Amino acid sequence: MTKPGNSGSEEPTQADQAPTGADDATENPGSTADPSHESPTGAAGDPPSSTLPAGTDKGGAADVAEARAKVRRADAEPLMADLEKAPPPPREQALRAQAKRRFEEPPPRTLRISFYFFVAAGLIWLISMVASLIYKQDIIDNEIKRNTNAKISPDQIATAVNQILWIVTIAALAFTVLLALFGYKATEGTRRARTLVTIFSVVLVLFHLLLNGTQLGILSAMFALVGLALLWSPSARRYFPPRQVL
């Protein structure tokens, strides 16, 4: 029975006093956020930065770099193999052939003899000039006797003869050294040495035939001509490598 004055009213039940979970969620929407969606930094509402373990991204980058390096090495190996199989350039072939001839094949006999003739031509010229210096006074006296110009004094003639003899002697020494050097290099099959020894020999021959005219000078020119004939003989020419076309 009810007490008087409390008609129509009932005591609140336990169900009425305890709010439901749905009502709490409706009243406080931020209080029921799922902790699984929290960011790794702890800030509520931020999206997760990564769900992978630490160090996974660095390891993947290292694997990619290593794979690229392997691809580059694989691409370079066939290229190097092709370069090794490629034929050597013409200059290298000529140098190899020259070295092979130098160490394996002796030079032709005509080429060796031409070297001796070139050296002899230079030595004969040098000896003739040394003899001219020894008998310099006789040459000066002969030139004074042959002089018909009264304006030229004997002292001027002596000075001029002395200077000419020394200049020609130095030239003879230089030609002897150059003929010996390039003549020897020609025996090794060097085309440039053959060209140079030919030029110096032609100059020597022209000088003795046109300007000098002494007996020793003519003999030196004859030796140089024989050396040129042997140098350009067919057997000697076959020893030299072919001319390289740029």
Automatic annotation (TrEMBL):
Listed transmembrane segments: 115-135, 164-184, 193-210, 216-233
Region called Disordered, residue ranges: 1-103
InterPro entries hit by this protein: MFS_trans_sf (IPR036259)
Ranges of Basic and acidic residues composition bias in the record: 65-76
SUPFAM superfamilies noted in UniProt: MFS general substrate transporter
Keyword Transmembrane: yes
Composition-biased stretches (Polar residues): 1-17
Keywords: Membrane, Transmembrane, Transmembrane helix
Name listed for the protein in its UniProt record: Uncharacterized protein
